[in-house]
Amino acid sequence: MTAEPGRKDARIALHQPGQSAFLMYAMPSTSEQPRYVPTARLADEARMARIAAIAIAALFAFLYVRGIYSFRPLIEWEDLYRYVERFSLDPYYGMTVPQEFLDYATTEYGWQLIVRGAFDAGLDFEAVFALISMIAVGLCAHAILRVTNRPAVLLLLLNPALIDFFISQVRSALAVAIVLNFARKSLPVGIAAILLSSAIHTSMMLFMIPLFLNAMRLRSSADNPRNTPPAWFWLLVAVAIGTLLASFQTLILGAIGDRRASYADTDLSAGPLLTLAWTMIGIVGAVLTRHRSTWPGMAAFFMLAMFTVSSMFGLYSHRYAAFFMPLMAMSIGGTLTPTANRMAFFGVYAAFSLVYFSFWL
Predict the structure, then answer these.
(1) How do the residues of the chain divide into helix, strand and coil, expressed in percent and rounded to 5?
(2) Distance (Å, rounded) from C-alpha 140 to C-alpha 166?
(3) At 9, phi and psi to the nearest 5?
(4) 181 and 259 co-located in one domain
(5) What angle do CA 108, 109, 115 make, to 5 degrees?
(6) Domain of 77?
(7) CB 136 within 8 A of CB 176
(8) Nearest-angstrom CA–CA distance, 131 and 136
(9) Does one domain contain both 350 and 230?
(10) Cβ-contact 14, 36 below 8 angstroms
(11) pLDDT 10s digits, 65-83
């Protein structure tokens, strides 16, 4: 290719239309013919994409949380209401001082600092939890937009399981939102983000597995691109590990002294019909997406395996379904997934969500 007259030293870069910088790390390469764009224009496009993602995510988060609270006030969220009352009376409830390094994760010391800081500042806990929900939704939406460049994909977050997740399970929601935004950057940044978020909710350590699987995939592809395992191989490995961990999670939690090991005595599963429905959504997504072996894809199906197997054993599983769906949105909304596949998934998921809402409301 020849440079423009008088611009012999102009820098030229490869660029895929609508493709964010994240795709260089998390998404596989495409065989489509790229177009050549000056680096200065690339930088402007990337800057505008970042600004647009932040603005759209912030607006979506505000409307999402505001709309839900208008429709269903705090007092109707039983778990969250007890949480707010408990910390309003005693901000040091359940707090312990870490004695060892592992204690910072198992005692969720980061969350303790957030609650204590809110109390010391004299803030209203109802407003604090609503703000945390808004931040979690905004960060999650931002992560999806940075990967997909498609605001319509955010509609996949309109599901009873995710609404309950963002409003009622604020700790998990905030921690996941942090992981989704930073684990995609690079392996060291991803490790740091997971360690930080695990101080808010211990379950974030699970994200280490798909993170390292993705690193192995990238290394295999770089070292021996002709003989690297296919996408389905990495997906099946993630599902197999998720199945194994879910089967022994009670023993693992008990070994590290986590209080959730005692929950095994109570049936907290999602129920057979809901478990089957989420599993079918996952299977449809696995067939339709073209990003199965990327970090979002492997993480999504790893969490789906955790959800399905946990439900089979009568263990608490709703959280894993909520982990699964934002990752599935990042995967199905990726640039390599054909529009027809994406629309087919949206149709199946919309039908499932409408039925879910009919039972939930």
Answers:
(1) 70, 0, 25
(2) 10
(3) -100, 10
(4) no
(5) 100
(6) 53-203
(7) yes
(8) 9
(9) yes
(10) yes
(11) 999 988 877 656 766 777 6
